[in-house]
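Task 17 of the worksheet. Students: predict the tertiary structure of the chain below and write it out as structure tokens. Keep your answer in the requested format; marks are given for formatting as well as content.
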Amino acid sequence: MWPVGRAFVNVAVVTLLLICFALPTSATPRILLQSSGVVNDIQETTDGDTSRKWWIYVIIPFVSGFVGYITNIIAIKMAFGPTEFWGWKLWQPKGQPFGLFGWQGIVPAKASVMAGRLTTLFTTKLFSVKEIFSRVDPAVVSKLCEPGSVAISKSTTDEIVKTLFPAVWSALPKYVKDEVIDLVYKESSSFITILMNNLKENITNVLDLTAMSTRLAEENKRIVIDMFLEVGENEYRFVELSGLVFGFIFGLFQTAIFFFWDNEWVLPVAGLLVGWVTNVLALKLIFQPAEPHKIFCFTIQGVFLKRQKEVSVQIADLATKWFLTPEIILGEIMNGSKKDAFHEMLDAVSFEYVDRVANPLEKMAASVLFGPEGMEKLKATVAATVRSEIHTVLPLCSSHVEQALDLKQTMLVALQQLPATDFIGILRPVFQEDEVKLIAVGALLGMLVGFIQQWGLFAYIA
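Model answer:
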């Protein structure tokens, strides 16, 4: 059993004993209540009625604990669900969980915002995009991509030249054609090498990890929800159980107030305070204090921060499994928010490639064969072909990119060494977004239960 659960049981037992044995025989509260007429009212009832009256005070702390527990559970549920807007949707502000009329979980409603914040944390605190890409070996990438680049060269070279320069190409001797094609094949591997060198040098110009993660989060809300649930499973359970314990403790004070001041608004107001305070305290204790503090023989630290090493393993594993895979990263380079910059880079490398292939042919009067305008046409056509086919070539190097970047281990080491004040940012966004709304819902639910206590349950018992 959790320590918080054991504490609840101990406090509950002691309270029951005090209420059941001490209060009925205590003279002091009777003297204090004499002026208000409460004791007289009790004395005027039968013994059975008096027994029922005392049971009201026994029930209050448990109802209060129940309120704290339920309101905290509801707060967690509302943070993560439903995945899509539930209700009669007339209007919903962009990126907000509420609307007319219904609700969407805070995490799915703001999945892209949270993913963006996390990615910013990763790229500013855990690793440098340029540094990790500097680990990629262009020669290895070229070797891995060679089957794809050669296949494209074979399938397109003859067709491109034949289409652009049919008369010239058909008039060339076979040995000249063969030499041109051989040159194309030889240079195809160097094309990938040059491209990867350019990518390493200018990776931040062609890759935006934040834009990538926000888009993926929006498209895969269920995965984002599952990630946060898995990472913070212990903390969410703590929130729930702490509501039970804090609610019970506050219920003891509520009982004392109600015992001496039997006013119809005491229970609703107390319920509102229980729902509000239990939520606030639970959220505070998850993340504060950030650093360990020694109090007597106890070490006090935020619940989430105590598990930094354990959570780091989970985060590194989940992030590299769902969002930071080599296939996704390479796909973002080729088709993401900065694809125009990548296409410009491809064009530049393609033009250089054509020049390198044509240079040895100058001895065979390449310029005469194709002419200046023909060479520009050839470059443009080759560049267009490379753009359309590069998506079949670059993924061939995924295995090396994954090994070279080594993101999982890089993130794990950096996360475990991250200062506690920064590590809070991993899970804090779940509660930070619309935290006030969650606390307000808990308070309103607590007040509602207070009304039910006052006008329903206790009215019936009394």
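Marker's comment: The mean pLDDT is 78. The first strand starts at residue 86 and ends at 91.
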